[in-house]
Amino acid sequence: MATTFRFVTRLNLVELLGRRAKNIPELLEGLRLVPGTSIYYHTHRFLQQHHYLCPEPPNDFAFWVTNALGLDTLGERLASVDTVSFPTIRDLRTRYLEILESYSQGHNARNGDCPEGQEFHFMSCRTFILPTPYEARNLKEFRDILQKVSINSIYFHIFEARLRLEKGENDFSNWLEDMGETQLAREISRLDPYCITLEGLRRELIQRVSRYVENP
Fold first, then answer.
1. For residue range 168-200, what is the model confidence (pLDDT) as tens digits?
2. What is the pTM (predicted TM-score) of this model?
3. Are 166 and 91 in contact (CB under 8 A)?
4. In the chain, where the domains are located
């Protein structure tokens, strides 16, 4: 049984993949071929770079389709994909492909090239996981560390652990489950972290853990 939660943090190195798209068929082809890290990057970039904004801005695919191609309806469909409902990047990729393939079947999408200079550039990011000095052995220590650990650490344990590393659940809920705090683990698991800012997520986590610290 895991008794200590070790907080880590991460640094990202953004990479240009050398693939670009000027229309829907090329976007569709790129989505089929790029690594899963690229799908993750383009669906989480806004959240990572603008973590004080709420609600979360659209994913890169929706943003480009709307603003570069002027396809508002398609952009809305791409933006409406509920990221939290997909357990793996593979499943998330499949959903985007389904939306774009459905659009392509009813439209001559190749004629809708974006203006020169506004092509979609597929990118990815390499994540470096770094240790922190913070370890929690109980709920009180866990709550206290949540108050001072970096937002990058919270982001890693909530978002990257569940989807990018395909653990099936965020690190906090997994640890709490192992600690026997099943109800609290489920409460955190049911949170939709895409609907609030990262600092708002920190506050929400602290509030929920505090209730169990104060009322064991």
1. 789 999 999 999 999 999 999 998 887 788 888
2. 0.81
3. no
4. 5-10+126-214, 13-124
